[in-house]
Design brief:
Elements (H helix, E strand, L loop, with lengths): L3 E3 L3 H4 L7 E2 L1 H15 L3 H8 L18 E2 L4 E8 L2 E9 L18 E3 L7 H4 L6 E6 L2 E5 L6 E7 L5 E11 L6 E10 L3 H5 L5 E2 L7 H4 L7 H10 L6 E5 L2
Parallel strand pairs: 2-5, 5-11, 6-11
Antiparallel strand pairs: 1-3, 1-8, 4-5, 4-7, 7-10, 8-9, 9-13, 10-11, 11-12
Length: about 240
């Protein structure tokens, strides 16, 4: 699992291996939804999102440059739609199109395991259809090396920015109050240094020359994409530190 990542700043975003445009309409839409949330009760937010319990805080938080993305926060993600490559705010936890209820956080829909990506209903309908790239500068995990959980930050050596493939979908509320895109980061077996630090999963760092192809999801079959994600990666070594 990869439960949190750090958002790159604007200069770091220029290092991505694909050109994109900022989707102004999508960012305006997020601000409009945030304004709607501020003007209604938490009971209404719960009802519109189909949440099992009343939310204790905003469900439309945006992680800005240099900030941290947690599950159900929005963050910058690169997607391609109608032959245009966009930078849009996507929620870091998938909300499948047409779903009536928000699933409990225990289902961890912010990550998709590569080994089961063709088996799980949530993912198999998106691979080969809706692909994106989530840029970040480090990622965080909880580990329990001596039975006590500690938070670890993993930082790529010699790289200002890295990126992971995501699957995304678009969800709309029944009454039209909310419409947003959301995503799940694809993870796989960790490199040795991450495993040695006590964690069993890691984001996939997709090779820079493979990003453009990944953003054209209909060009291959789901099985071919699974093989593609196994074979088109850049090497990265992570330093780590305990978070106070």
């Amino acid at each position: 699992m990869c439960y949190s990542v750090s958002v790159p700043n604007d200069d770091q975003m220029t290092l991505l291996p694909v050109e994109f445009e900022r989707d102004k309409a999508a960012w305006v839409r997020l601000r409009e939804m945030q304004a709607w949330e501020e003007g209604v009760s938490m009971d209404e937010v719960q009802a519109v999102l189909g949440m099992p319990g009343k939310p204790r805080s905003s469900q439309l938080k945006l992680a800005g440059p240099g900030g941290r993305v947690y599950p159900r926060y929005f963050c910058p993600v690169v997607v391609r739609e109608e032959r245009q490559t966009w930078l849009r705010p996507l929620r870091y936890t998938l909300r499948p199109a047409g779903s009536y209820t928000e699933l409990s956080s225990k289902y961890q829909l912010f990550n998709a395991r590569l080994d089961t990506i063709l088996e799980k209903r949530t993912w198999k309908g998106l691979i080969g259809r809706r692909h994106g790239i989530l840029p970040f500068t480090s990622f965080y995990e909880w580990v329990a090396p001596k039975g006590k959980s500690v938070e670890i930050q993993f930082m790529p050596q010699g790289k200002e920015i890295i990126w992971a493939p995501v699957l995304w979908d678009r969800w709309s509320s029944l009454g039209g109050e909310l419409e947003f895109d959301s995503c799940s980061m694809i993870t796989d077996e960790p490199p040795p240094e991450v495993a040695a630090a006590g964690h069993d999963r890691s984001p996939i760092f997709l090779a820079g020359d493979a990003v453009d192809q990944w953003l054209n999801p209909e060009s291959q079959s789901p099985q071919e994409w699974k093989e593609f994600l196994s074979g088109h990666r850049d090497s990265v070594h992570y330093d780590h530190r305990m978070v106070a």
